Amino acid sequence: MQVVMAFDQGTTSSRAILFDHKGSIVGIAQQEFKQHYPQPGWVEHDAGEIWQTQLAVGREVLAKAGLTADDIAAIGITNQRETTVVWDRATGEPIANAIVWQDRRTASYCDKLREAGHTGSVQAKTGLLIDAYFCATKIRWILDNVSDAQSRAEKGELAFGTIDSWLLWNLTGGRVHATDVTNASRTMLLNVNTCQWDGDLLELFGIPDSMLPEVLPSSCLYGESDIDLLGAAVKLGGAAGDQQAALFGQNCTEHGMAKNTYGTGCFMLMNVGGEPVSSKCKLLTTVACGLEGANQYALEGSVFIAGAAVQWLRDGMQIIDSAPEVEALAASVPDSDGVYMVPAFAGLGAPHWDSYARGAIVGITRGTTRAHLARAALEGIAFQVADVLDAMKTDSGMPMKELRVDGGASANDLLMQFQADITQVPVIRPKVIETTALGAAFLAGLAVGFWTDTGEISGIWQTDRVFEPMMSLDEVNQRRNRWNDALGRAGHWEPAS
Ligand code: ADP
User: Fold this and answer.
1) What is the pLDDT along the chain (497 residues), one digit of tens a residue?
2) Residue whose CA is closest, atom 9 of ligand 1?
3) How far apart are CA 263 and CA 265, in angstroms?
4) Cis amide prior to 38 (ω within 30 degrees)
5) How far is Cα 370 from Cα 373, in angstroms, rounded to an integer?
6) Distances (CA, A) of 496 to 46, 158, 434
7) Pick from 261, 246, 251: which is nearest to 410 by CA?
8) Kind and range of the H or E element at 73?
9) Helix/strand/coil for 403
10) 435 CB within 6 A, ligand 1
11) CA R_g for the chain
12) Does residue 311's CB lie within 6 angstroms of at least one atom of ligand 1?
């Protein structure tokens, strides 16, 4: 067996990546698929198209690498989280389009749940804040809006799954209806303390338990793929939600280790060990990847606009032609000359949670140039991440020794250095920044003995560069105070409707 295959099923594309025993990439194939926006605030995917593109890239990557299914030790799945599929058990056909995590159609239902006083009990059971983001209200919507769905669900005719379950079902020709525990923890139906589906929550949402997949560890033998799909039966050894897979791919397997992904937005996760930590700073408690029999937990905080601020400089302001250009432009000035940019274009996420905040640029003078704006945009990304990092330190009661980074914008050295400076935490960028797919590969490879233990995979993870904090504490405090002032100007800008 030469390789492990990761299925990286994302929001806009399906990818398949082959990793060899050293964790090096042997092949990649990728296909985009269609986004459906039937109404403002609604986002749907055709689950059939997700499966077809995923299978196609699996076949393509093997052909490109000149390998066959017999060369694959196992497949690991990582996926866009919270996206909800309901299908007919008899035919395997979805009864509606998948409702994507970004979809806001159930926001008013969530308002009603909050008004009815469910916030505390839902948080205590699930570790989540009630939001349209998670699966429970999306399932409810499908059961309410597809004819006969509720009665068919009650008769046991329908199955629910996140994308991992949907792929496992299709890979096994409907023999396996399972989900991994990290994906299950994003449904708002899992009790994170027991890692079991919660009867009270199922009752609250009117969801029959016959719809639910079996909850399994992230690294275990889920089954084997049907022979005719890839040309031989391949073991299915791992599954995890994308952010949890990245945490594992970054080797953050010990208490207190954290990673931050700099993409369109930012996702920071910190491993908090074998017991869930409930947040007082508006972070989420979520299940992290553990090996069989050993649950692990994480705190999670997300920033809505990070790399998207750079996209705005490129597409909205047109002061750069490509995202990477922002670094040279920002580096052409020694500092932002007192300019602060709060990129709250879509409100503020953790730990502020202000949906009425809007973007602000303050401190502009006659001397301000596009270079200062570029610098202020990068710093605005880093300040937001620093606020999440502080919340993690407070909630976990642990100092943060280092922050491991990945995602498109982690290639930006100036941003990474400023991140280290402003948080006073060393920032570590690994050589392989495909950490999500690597995490899924690790999970699957460990389940089948391709890698023997986490000690072996920690030897695979390699540092590309360490950014040590260099700014004086006085300056850090002064800059962060000014950032807080700027946040105050951006907060609650939009009148509440
Ligand atoms: P996603 O998975 O959310 O699509 P990626 O990890 O592919 O995101 O990263 C793309 C994001 O990173 C874009 O928002 C882009 O503006 C930003 N980005 C890419 N390269 C750089 C760079 N060198 N400096 C700053 N931002 C960058």
Assistant:
1) 699 999 999 988 999 999 999 999 999 999 999 989 898 888 899 999 999 999 999 999 999 999 999 999 999 999 999 999 999 999 999 999 999 988 888 888 988 999 999 999 999 999 998 888 899 999 999 999 999 999 999 999 999 999 999 999 999 999 999 999 999 999 999 999 999 999 999 999 999 999 999 999 999 999 999 999 999 999 999 999 999 999 999 999 888 999 999 998 899 999 999 999 989 999 999 999 987 678 899 999 999 899 999 999 999 999 999 999 999 999 999 999 999 999 998 888 899 988 788 999 999 999 999 999 999 999 999 999 999 999 999 999 988 999 999 999 999 999 999 999 999 999 999 988 889 999 999 999 999 999 998 889 988 888 999 999 999 999 999 999 999 999 999 998 988 66
2) 408
3) 5
4) no
5) 5
6) 34, 39, 40
7) 261
8) strand 72-79
9) strand
10) no
11) 22
12) yes
Taken in order of first residue, the domains within the chain and their CATH numbers are 3-243 (3.30.420.40)
Please tell me the distance from the alpha carbon of residue 86 to that of residue 93, in angstroms, as a whole number: 9
Closest among 4, 140, 167, 19 to 80, alpha carbons compared: 167
CA nearest to 430, candidates 459, 454, 456? 459
Supply 479's token pair: 């800059």
Atom 25, ligand 1: which residue's CA is nearest?
409
Helix, strand, or coil (residue 465): strand
Q: 114 alpha carbon to ligand 1 midpoint, in Å? A: 35
Strand partners, 354: 348
Q: How far is the CA of 150 from the centre of ligand 1 (A)?
A: 42
CA triple 416-405-55, angle to 5 deg: 135
CB neighbour burial string for 275-298, b if at least 16 within 10 angstroms, e if fewer: ebbebebebbbbbbbbbeeebbbb
Structure tokens at 413: 């050295």
The CB of 433 under 6 Å from ligand 1? The reply is no
Q: CB neighbours (10 Å) of residue 432?
A: 18
Q: Rounded to the nearest whole angstrom, what is the distance from the C-alpha of residue 125 to the centroid of ligand 1?
A: 35
**8 Å CB contact between 299 and 284:** yes
CB 91 within 8 A of CB 22: no
**Residues contacting 360, CB < 8 A, separation 6+:** 340, 341, 342, 344, 486, 489, 490, 493
Q: What is the dihedral of CA 480, 486, 490, 491, to 10 degrees?
A: 50
> What global pTM score does this model have?
0.91
